[in-house]
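[09:14] KT: can someone run the structure on this one? pasting the chain below
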Amino acid sequence: MSKIMYMFPGQGAQYVGMGKAMYDKYEKAREIFNIASKVTGLDIAALCFEENENINITEYTQIAMLTVEAAIYAVMTEQGLKCDYTAGLSLGEYGALIAAGVLSYEDAFKVVRQRGIFMQEAVPTGGAMAAVLGMDAQAIEKICADTEGYVSIANYNCPGQIVITGEEAAVGKASEALKEAGAKRVVPLNVSGPFHSKMLESAGEKLGTVIDEVTIGNIRVPYVSNVTAQLVTDAVNIKELLVKQISSSVRWQQTIELMINEGTDTFVEIGPGKTLSGFMRKIVKPDSGNSIMTFHIETPEELEAYVNR
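[09:31] RB: done, structure tokens below
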């Protein structure tokens, strides 16, 4: 029996025009966009479809991305499609929380709108991030620990791709040390702050007050936490995990490895871009013996292809 996991991407995959094909074709997608606009007071359709600079500003990117993901998911649900597990990368975890039955659309939009604002406000001067390519995670962890100043791992994306985060000077020193130690490349990221570092703990604390105002539902579909890379089975722990998530490492590779061990063989990326599908190709080796299928759904054509698979 096939087991299916829905995956929701995070910031970085956004672009002007994302979600428009689904919006134009499906009333259900338009309904979700309208809910997001009503909850946030923003014109989400204009934010996603019309040329603007806000699309790449964290405060707006997060709610735009989640709305598109939620709209696609809502159309899939309307067509009777279901999953066995779900998870999302950073911001994408909120798409997973909707799919898990933990948050309503309205509450997810409320929380993520504030999450984006808090993260934008909390960004300290002198923070940076960099992608480390072609190096073992343990070697990176050791070099980060040995570097003067604060630098840590933000994302365990997939084998050969790990993101570091922290104070700009420390990230720079660690980057040089990593290159000297054999990293193929260390690429500075064009981001507005040191995300998934302890430098953003204040944003997590503020987010906790917003989460207190929404209803945390029972878990209908098991989901995997970014913080622990473990299945969440008790709704009592969800607030604490979401507060920690802003300043903790995202354990995406470990998440996918857990799901494969649980017998999942079909992975469906829901939302803009194919970032997570790309990670899958590096996590699941061709010679591993696993019969893994990966799908991407962003357009009506991709949805039809998945339905008719």
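[09:33] KT: thanks! The radius of gyration is 19 Å.
[09:34] RB: yep, looked fine to me
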